[in-house]
Write a structure and sequence with these properties.
single chain, mainly alpha, Recoverin, domain 1, 2 domains, 5 helices, 0% strand, elongated
Length: 127
C-alpha cells in the first residue's frame, strides 16, 4: 500500500499487478514486501542499467533522480529539500486524519458506555 501511495504521489500510478511485479523484481527475501535495502536496490539496478525501460521501477528511479552534474550541488540540495518538505506536509495531513479518527473512536466508545449505563438504570427501575 505504501508503494502504491508513493507511486501515485510521484505521478506514476500503478495497477495492483504492476505493483506486485515491481516488488517481485527486487524482493530478495521473497516476503512480498520491500525492505529499505530492497528499496535502495531499485536505484542501484537503475544505475547499473538492469531495469527494463518500461517498468514501474524504472519510472520510480527516474522520478526520484537528479543529475548533479547538470543541476549542480545547490540544485540537488533544493530538489531533496523540496521532496522532504512535500513528505512532511503529507505526514502532517496523515497525522491530522489519524487524530480525527482516534477522536471519533473515543466519542463512539463514550456513547456506547453511556448507552450501557442507561440500559442498566432502565433495568433497575423496570424491576
Amino acid at each position: 500500500m505504501e508503494l502504491k501511495l508513493m507511486m501515485e504521489k510521484l505521478g506514476a500510478p500503478q495497477t495492483h499487478l504492476g505493483l506486485k511485479s515491481m516488488i517481485k523484481e527486487v524482493d530478495e527475501d521473497f516476503d512480498g514486501q520491500l525492505s529499505f535495502r530492497e528499496f535502495l536496490l531499485i536505484f542501484h539496478k537503475a544505475a547499473a542499467g538492469e531495469l527494463q525501460e518500461d517498468s514501474g521501477l524504472m519510472a520510480l528511479a527516474k522520478l526520484s533522480e537528479i543529475d548533479v552534474a547538470q543541476e549542480g550541488v545547490k540544485g540537488a540540495k533544493d530538489f531533496f529539500e523540496a521532496k522532504v518538505q512535500a513528505l512532511s506536509c503529507a505526514s502532517k495531513f496523515e497525522a491530522e486524519l489519524k487524530a480525527e479518527q482516534d477522536e471519533r473512536k473515543q466519542e463512539e466508545e463514550k456513547r456506547r458506555l453511556r448507552q450501557a449505563a442507561f440500559r442498566e438504570l432502565k433495568a433497575a427501575f423496570s424491576t
